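Incident log, structure service

09:12 report received: a user says their structure output differs between two submissions of the same chain.
09:20 pulled the input from the user's history:
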Amino acid sequence: MLADRVGRLATLRLGTALLVVSALLLIFVGTSELAVIVALVALGLGWSAALVTSSAMLTDAVPGDEAPKYQGRSDLVMNLAGALGGILSGPVVTTWGMPTLAAISLVVVAIVAIYQVKPRRLPVRA
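09:34 re-ran on a clean worker, output below:
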């Protein structure tokens, strides 16, 4: 609903900002129980905003009859990346700690954020 009200890009950027806040909290004050709770709430909200909005943007960008095919591919890649992240995160946290995992995640989010400010060719509902 937020993406429909304020626009896809604005919602995607909000989600990205929440992911950045989450990572920064875990990096700098991750030893505080309250900070971890706030970081995990921000992570969940940011992930939800980014996922729902990017799915809507993908659907907007392809012809109606092609949307399920592209959405399926997108979901497959997302789930494979999630599985890989789940497999790798345990050893990273065990070996180097949560701040390191958060820093790695922040790099990934930064790459996505840089992509968000690049001009795009696909039609996107604002």
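09:41 both user submissions now match this output. Likely a transient worker issue. Closing.
09:42 reviewer note: The chain has a mean pLDDT of 89. The longest helix spans residues 67-96.
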